[in-house]
Specification:
Shape of chain A: globular
Order of helices and strands of chain A: HHEHEHEHEHEHEHEHEHHHEEEHHHH
Number of helices of chain A: 16
Oligomer: homotrimer
Structural class of chain A: alpha/beta
Number of strands of chain A: 11
Largest sheet of chain A: 5 strands, parallel
């Protein structure tokens, strides 16, 4: 039996045909089958690579990355995913390029896409902007393809926007699938997606929004906890409610961290900025009002400081299921006594979960690769089987197979 | 019949043997056969790629890019071309490297070339400098090869210098070949290479120079139009005259935009800086006279402002052949009412030609790839046929062939 | 006979099994067999490439580069080596990434390593820091591998630290092997590793330390010369003494440049900063004492200026063996009358040795590739033979073989 047979078999039961030549923006825009297919392909690609079997489907090809915010993890995950499939990454650096000099998005999108198979964008800083910008790019290359300017349709992968962080949340979910021994085992599990105090300011909302928007699809008991005033986007809450209703799960909110943690199977304590404040910041930024932005920052830091008790302490962890809830984080975390005086999590808690946290992160390159694979390959099961049967070694001279 | 048969057949009639192990600087340094061969190989490589057939001739190898000016299009075109052929691009970033710290060109050129197959340079800012610098690099690696320091001779590709912009102009010409249904159909066609007003300052002369230096070789009626004082390099005008005489075409100059546009088949309205001003700027730069440079900039902006009427308006377009001349631009354009109040072209004109403009740009990666291919491959027709016959899919599992 | 047979044969006599899945830090941490194996594999890889035979052992894979100091040569050598073997380089740019924002080394090292085969680091600026940092990274990925976070163990290559510059010194040694016609011919040869005056300040000690730490292993007569006060690390002197005793060579020190040059077969005149000053600088840097650093710089420049007579002049060269010692330098050199008024070497001396200097540098990419090869390939002789026998052309259509 080949390294990918079980994934291929599971894939046969799913309908994911619309992922071909499509993009990956928000997880809730994908059907349950499409989400499941992404997990399976990610696992299959990992099985290939860990068996020293090349998963290189592109003999040549470009992947373009556009990071409008600093990034280590997502940048390297994207680079790893593209390399795994045979694509070379070309950064579109707005400092180096002419993008900043008044070019329209439409023009640039076409100009960089003549030989681009994938475009990955991170644009998470301004509410109402990041996801909209990505759609503008996707629409532009769509039009370019229809107009015959491009002979192919580059796939857009959302590497974090103002609404969702799909590659992170899908990787988190795949980690949970493996931690709990299967997707079905997530049913009924309680996860506390909780705000936590950080001395820094203005962290994106995309992770908490992405988590409640995704995990509610698996019949989980999803609790969103935050102090008053730290609401996430109302639209995403509606998505989470609807998902929970459909999946037989639960979506509840609380302003009490302890309530969220009580008997939780999984906790995800993380700082974020209030949605309304981020909206105001976006407006001030649009007006070029730096003074207003600075004042807003001071206000938010003061507001944050009132909630230093929102921290993932050892005492709080004891109240979780058997005192052993899985602690998750997208990293880097603000760790009390390590990276700051008071932060999101006690140093001892973080330390105990270091390996699980790293494993959680390890799924992201494979999730991104799966998103690309499903968008570019017309018959994913056939190609996965071909790769496994041909079993071209990734590293010459090393054993093939586990 | 394979995807490249017709190009291979046409190539057989041409003599381009001296392109092997050579560089690509100015188009007028190449014979007509060599220019034609470059078009044919570009088309052949495009046919391969659009048939999902790998054109990867390098199993490994490096292409070095050195951009002394910001660039999106050319950077991505170069990256695309190199990737198509199997080369990885390594940027020589003068900020990051020690080039800025007094190293001689000769030393650096050799140090970066031990495994470099191609060196692409953009250096267009200073009159008398860019092309000279590229030759210095080419001479250095030539010497390195002769002295046994390098076991091979890296190929230099001029990605825009102070004299010519060969990759742009060759791509423009290939676009015209396809727009007009063949190289022979360009004979007698009138093109207006015209200065146009832009509120910005100091745009390079390489595009107008490259256009009149190249298109005069195809028997075209090439009109160079600009206000008095916006002369291009006299040497290039001589080249254009000589070309026109040899090809049975025409090269004329006028200070009247309307005259140039009248009954033109193609118009290329674009801003550039006066040659003499750029020469003075180079001198001031050499003297480190920032005050002088600033004053020159103000002078030039004032001079420009006197010619706001040099714009590609709807009215002017109506005077062209059937009112339907092909509008060309190397992009990005300064568009009236879009990117600036008054610019090179009316918004409605630009909008109407958006798709043709994007198609024009789409040839550049293939032109660059063809330049590299012809310089590195000893028997290009044989290798093109091999690629077509072996038909290795670029993307696994996708259909091969149109 | 294949291109690599003689190297493979020589390799069979050596024990280098512990290099597999290991790192390359200091040369004196490697056995003599391991050092010799690195030379042989470097030569074999060069023979393959110069025969147009692909040495690509990775079908896909990432190499991460982290340069904490500007670099052209080492950056390009690393990129060339990785490309030769099939790895794509991904820069970890501390400006772009979140490394600077308080992440622990352990976390970052794991986060970037999920698909990384190699990590190359240059960190040479602070005494007691660079090598320690590299070990921290190596330990982190070691732990990650043991903990199951990583499915493989990325190899660390020291691209220059505060103690050694192993890729430079191994390349220098391989150059000597070829210059003198074999490793055995180095026995008894006198090399003057001498301080030389430079108007700049604070050059790393890694080259002189690396040279005396490595060349003493080959039975050479190694003389370290410098003015009083320019001592290198005492630990490295001990290593050199021990090496010389074991190899039947010599390691002596002098404060007289002429004595070192007298009858030398090889001279390596190069500026460096006094160890104690660099130690103090590291301390001041740690304290954030910029004023102290500036004062130290002035002191050191004054101290340097007292030793302008320490220069590799034509007169001094005449005193070497037959007046024809091989002049070596890691480049770039400070050349009297060229890059500075008074520098490390006379312009005419440098000029005469330009080709040998470039050849010296040409070995670095192959040395780095050999270090990676030996760390990643379990049976290097078998894989080298496979590559030679399969003889896949690196460039399609070019002749295979010399």
């Amino acid at each position: 039996m080949s390294a990918v047979d079980k994934y291929v078999e599971a894939l046969r039961a799913l309908d994911f045909s619309k992922m071909f030549n499509n993009d990956f923006f928000l997880t809730w825009e994908k059907t349950k089958d499409e989400i499941d297919a992404t997990f399976l392909v990610a696992d299959a690609l990992r099985a290939l690579r860990e068996s020293n079997i090349s998963a290189r489907i592109f003999d040549s090809g470009l992947a373009i990355s556009l990071f409008r915010d600093n990034s280590t993890r997502t940048r390297f995950s994207f680079a790893s995913a593209c390399n795994l499939l045979g694509l070379a990454v070309q950064d579109l650096d707005e400092g180096k390029s002419q993008v900043a000099h008044g070019e329209t998005v439409r023009e640039t999108a076409n100009m960089i896409s003549f030989m681009a198979d994938v475009i990955g964008i991170r644009d998470d800083m301004y509410i109402g902007k990041g996801n909209a910008y990505m759609h503008e790019v996707a629409d532009a290359v769509d039009q370019g393809y229809k107009d015959g300017v491009l002979d192919h349709r580059p796939t857009l992968v959302d590497l974090q926007c103002d609404i969702d962080h799909p590659t992170q949340c899908m990787a988190d979910a795949l980690d949970l699938i493996h931690e709990f021994g299967g997707l079905d085992n997530l049913r009924g599990k309680k996860i506390a997606m909780s705000w936590a105090y950080s001395p820094s300011y203005g962290k994106p909302l995309s992770v908490p929004q992405g988590i409640v928007g995704l995990l509610t699809r698996f019949g989980m008991d999803v609790v969103l906890a935050h102090p008053e005033g730290y609401e996430i986007m109302a639209d995403v809450e509606e998505v989470a409610k609807k998902n929970a209703a459909e999946s037989g799960g639960k979506f509840t909110k609380t302003n009490d961290m302890a309530e969220a943690f009580a008997d939780a199977d999984i906790v995800y304590p993380k700082s974020w900025a209030p949605f309304k404040a981020m909206e105001k910041r976006t407006q001030l930024y649009g007006e070029g009002d730096q003074k207003g932005i600075d004042e807003l920052e001071q206000d938010l830091l003061r507001q944050n400081a009132q909630h230093q008790d929102w921290s993932c302490t050892e005492d709080l962890m004891k109240t979780t299921k058997d005192g052993k809830a899985l602690y998750m984080h997208c990293l880097p975390a603000d760790i009390s006594g390590v990276s700051c005086e008071h932060g999101e999590v006690d140093g001892s808690v973080f330390d105990r979960y270091r390996d699980p946290l790293y494993k959680e992160a390890s799924y992201k390159p494979y999730i991104i690769a799966a998103m690309i694979f499903l968008a570019k390959v017309q018959d994913p099961t056939a190609v996965l089987q071909d790769l496994a049967v041909n079993a071209k070694p990734r590293l010459l001279g090393a054993p093939v197979g586990h």
